[in-house]
Amino acid sequence: MKIYEKGFTFIELILVISLFSIIFVFIIPSLVRPRSFADMVSTQELIYATVKEAQSLAMTNPQREYGVHFEQDKFILFEGSTYSPSDTNNLETTLTTNLSIGSISLPTQDIIFSQVSGEVRNYTSGQDSFELRESNTNDSKTFTINRIGTLDAN
Q1: Could you tell me if 39 and 67 are in contact, meaning their C-beta atoms sit under 8 angstroms apart?
Q2: Residues in contact with 30: Cβ distance below 8 Å, sequence separation at least 6, in sequence order
Q3: Residue 14 falls within a domain, yes or no?
């Protein structure tokens, strides 16, 4: 009569752990990518909305200019012809930790809209873009604005 012992051998345990490790390595990037994509898309839409809001405010308020100031970890809707960090009316949007703004090629890191016309004040071709970068996937979008305030992302 043979007695069978129940349990797993050390080799079986190592094989199962190895298989789970391999599966885990392939699944994690698949789980991170949708979140990164969602962060990128929602921030891109928020940048569009903020720029359009600044332009709309400048067009409807003949006494004031409005603009958007860009920094590496945030962008700020501000009132006036220059950005003042101490202004309490600034509307600041902080980016998630995996996103950053870089390659800012704007005069004084600002897009400022002229009163009534809504055109970009002091527009200079070649100084009209910035980049939104996602650090986990290395995806990026380059935003370019034209003289009349149309923002485009590539």
Answers
A1: no
A2: none
A3: no
The bridge status of strand 99-105 relative to strand 110-113 is: unpaired
CA gap 154, 131 in Å, rounded: 9
Is 83 within a domain? yes
pLDDT per residue as tens digits for the range 26-81 = 877 666 667 778 888 999 999 999 999 999 999 998 888 999 999 999 999 999 99
CA distance 142 to 9: 55
Q: What is the distance between the alpha carbons of residues 87 and 142, in angstroms, rounded to a whole number?
A: 28
Q: Say whether pLDDT at 20 is over 90.
A: no
Assigned domain for 34 exists: no
Separation of alpha carbons 54 and 15, rounded Å: 59
Provide the pLDDT confidence category of residue 108 given band limits of 50, 70 and 90.
confident
d(CA 150, CA 122): 15
- Total Cβ atoms within 10 A of residue 146: 13
